[in-house]
Amino acid sequence: MPVKKKDTDRALVLLEEYCKKLRKPEEQQLKKAIRKVMGIFKSSLFQALLDIQEFYEVTLLNSQKSYEQKIEEANEVAEKWEKTTSPAKGHENLQKSQEVTG
């Protein structure tokens, strides 16, 4: 079953709720490990992978879409990620991800 963005959002909520319950000193390592997972889910790379998977399933595998439609949608996806991912933003996202896990 493919993973969707809404599924990862729900997983993040569940993980956050679980982390709130971890208060004992012996549970802090588990809490830290879970926060690492959450940082990965929030990373731009992970989100890009979800977009790629969704694009593949919704657009490329759709036999009812013409090649022209597929080309247009491929260009839209590429433009979206060109606008949201630059080397500077990638570095900022990595730092934010590390802050969440730290």
UniProtKB/TrEMBL annotation:
Coiled coil: none annotated. It holds the Pfam family L27_1. Residues 78-102 are annotated as: Disordered. Residues 78-94 have a biased composition (Basic and acidic residues). InterPro entries: L27_1, L27_dom, L27_dom_sf. It comes from the Eukaryota. Residues 4-64 form the L27 domain. SUPFAM superfamilies: L27 domain (SSF101288). This is L27 domain-containing protein. The lineage of its organism: Eukaryota, Metazoa, Chordata, Craniata, Vertebrata.
